[in-house]
Design goal:
alpha/beta, five-stranded mixed sheet, 38% helix
């Protein structure tokens, strides 16, 4: 004798399509958001070592200025000239006068003049909260 099991009607009513759509949208959102957050740290720069270096804690008001081994300046993923660096720093200081912070990521093979140029441009723009990053490893 065969045993018959009665299935409830709840599974026939439950539509999974909206749930799958929401999960897919969340996945896309997080993929795009993490892509933009990592943009300033993508440039392959060999940072100099410092024994007292601490991990960088990025805050929303920080502006990253990357300097590669050839002395080229990169801001927000694009190559800029020295004059453009000064203009961008002046605009950032005007947009956020009290809390603007600049992080300078200079390759250890670049001449010190490039990093000093950015620091001087920060001072001229009225930004006194700037940092030169290091890797924290002794090489």
């Amino acid at each position: 004798m065969a045993v018959r099991i009665k299935k409830g009607s709840a599974l026939n009513v439950l539509n999974m399509t909206p749930l799958i759509d929401v999960v897919f949208q969340l996945l896309l959102f997080f993929l795009v958001a993490t892509r933009f957050a990592a943009e300033d740290r993508e440039l392959d720069v060999m940072l100099p070592a410092a024994s007292e270096a601490r991990p960088l804690m990025a805050q929303p008001r920080e502006l990253f200025v990357n300097i590669d081994h050839q002395g080229q300046f990169f801001i927000q993923g694009r190559v800029v000239s020295g004059d453009e660096v000064a203009q961008i720093l002046r605009q950032a200081a005007a947009d956020n006068p009290a809390h603007q912070s600049v992080i300078i990521r200079a390759d250890k093979r670049v001449q010190l003049d490039s990093a000093v140029f950015v620091m001087n441009a920060c001072n001229q723009a009225g930004i006194f909260d700037y940092k030169l990053t290091t890797s924290g490893e002794d090489n």
